[in-house]
């Protein structure tokens, strides 16, 4: 299983992959719609996953993480590209 968060500064989204379910793509709702309420963040279903853009960005930044992890996530992103 892994979760890959991206576009964190503008509109954070999350790609989740699990062996039994496969891929899900969600948007993070931070729960902070008004300053007077403190709600918990939740994941909300999101539309199209921009796999090419995220894969390019991930491959550049994945040099900062352990090689087996980076290779595994990149492989799963490429599989998503072929779907």
Percent of residues in beta strands? 25-35%
- Tell me the distance between the termini: 19 Å
Order of helices and strands: EEEEHH
Principal-axes shape call = globular
Low-confidence stretches: none
The helix content, as a percent range, equals: 25-40%
Output the radius of gyration.
Answer: 14 Å
- Major sheet: 4 strands, antiparallel
Name the average pLDDT: 93
| Count of extended strands | 4
Sheet with the most strands: spatial strand order: 1-2-3-4
SS element count, helices: 2
User: Class by helix and strand content?
Assistant: alpha+beta
Tally of distinct domains: 1
Features:
83 residues, alpha+beta, four-stranded antiparallel sheet, 31% helix, globular
Question: Care to describe what's here?
Answer:
By secondary structure, the chain is of the alpha+beta class. It has one domain. It has two helices and four strands; from the N terminus they run E-E-E-E-H-H. The protein has helices spanning 51-61, 67-81; strands at residues 2-6, 13-18, 22-29, 42-45. Strands 1-2-3-4 form a four-stranded antiparallel sheet, with helices on one face. Strand 1 and strand 2 (13-18) form a beta hairpin. It is globular, with a radius of gyration of 14 Å. The relative contact order is 0.17. The model has no long low-confidence stretch (mean pLDDT 93).
């Amino acid at each position: 299983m892994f979760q890959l968060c991206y576009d964190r500064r503008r509109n954070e989204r999350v790609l989740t992959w699990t062996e039994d379910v496969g891929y899900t793509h969600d948007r993070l709702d931070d729960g902070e719609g008004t300053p007077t309420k403190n709600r918990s963040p939740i994941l909300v279903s999101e539309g199209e996953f921009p796999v090419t853009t995220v894969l390019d960005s991930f491959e550049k930044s994945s040099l900062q993480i352990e090689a087996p992890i980076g290779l595994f996530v990149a492989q799963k992103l490429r599989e998503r590209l072929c779907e």
